[in-house]
User: Which sequence fits this backbone?
């Protein structure tokens, strides 16, 4: 181990031991879109998420940062009902309990993840038609037309997804997630693998719906994440190190703390 590793700033170590969690998301000041209380998720003996608690106001944009293996994607999956909570913790999204009201909750959320959740042997149109039926979307053709135009794939609507580039697949995945007009969007590194043009399209889509939706985004890009966010959260070893409104955060200090925590590792 290098001398730098031994001399990691005490600020980062203190942050790990004494996380900063602001009252900014308290339901007394603004309705909470997401409430997590003592949320944990284990895989065998390892806790990927460890006693996480926070509240996120309605229409907020939360960016979650942390080293690889910190539990970011696992937390996203728990909040979006893709993984169950381990133990006695609880969480609600849009007022629905993730444990007991998962079916109702899924009607109100959209997910963009590393897995595009698309059928590669179907066309773009067939994929969106299939998900429109699952969501019981009225007048699906009009909604699909709107979204394919928004992600600039209308000219490829009848082409099989298997022939799409990574960026095109991600753009179609974005259209899929927006089909039901979700109240909350969970984004797991949505900019990963996008070319500059596709990134601009995603920026535009987020800007167009920003005021009417709540966002939770996992990102390794501090600049992009902080640019979009109203709230920021750092995870390390499955625990919250810092959670606050961005207006209360000193960007330089935040970046320094993040880099020091990354240097400490997560194992």
Assistant:
């Amino acid at each position: 181990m290098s001398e730098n590793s031994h001399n990691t700033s005490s600020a980062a170590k203190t942050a790990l031991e004494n996380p900063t969690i602001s009252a900014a998301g308290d339901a007394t000041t603004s309705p909470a879109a997401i409430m997590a209380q003592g949320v944990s998720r284990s895989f065998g003996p390892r806790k990927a998420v460890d006693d996480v608690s926070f509240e996120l106001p309605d229409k907020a944009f939360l960016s979650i940062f942390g080293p690889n293996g910190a539990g970011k994607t696992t937390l996203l999956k728990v909040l979006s009902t893709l993984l169950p909570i381990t133990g006695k913790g609880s969480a609600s999204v849009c007022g629905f309990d993730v444990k007991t009201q998962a079916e109702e909750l899924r009607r109100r959320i959209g997910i963009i993840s590393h897995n595009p959740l698309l059928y590669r042997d179907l066309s773009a149109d067939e994929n969106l038609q299939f998900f429109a039926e699952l969501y019981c979307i009225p007048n699906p053709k009009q909604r699909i037309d709107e979204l394919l135009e928004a992600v600039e794939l209308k000219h490829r609507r009848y082409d099989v997804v298997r022939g799409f580039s990574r960026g095109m697949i991600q753009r179609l995945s974005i259209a899929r997630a927006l089909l039901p007009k979700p109240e909350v969007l969970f984004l797991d590194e949505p900019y990963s693998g996008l070319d500059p043009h596709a990134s601009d399209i995603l920026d535009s889509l987020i800007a167009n719906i920003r005021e009417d939706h709540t966002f939770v985004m996992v990102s390794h890009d501090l600049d992009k994440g902080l640019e979009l966010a109203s709230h920021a959260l750092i995870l390390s070893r499955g625990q919250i190190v810092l959670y606050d409104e961005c207006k209360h955060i000193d960007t330089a200090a935040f970046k320094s703390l993040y880099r020091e925590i990354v240097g400490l590792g997560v194992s």
In short: The chain has ten helices and eleven strands. The two ends are 14 Å apart (CA to CA).
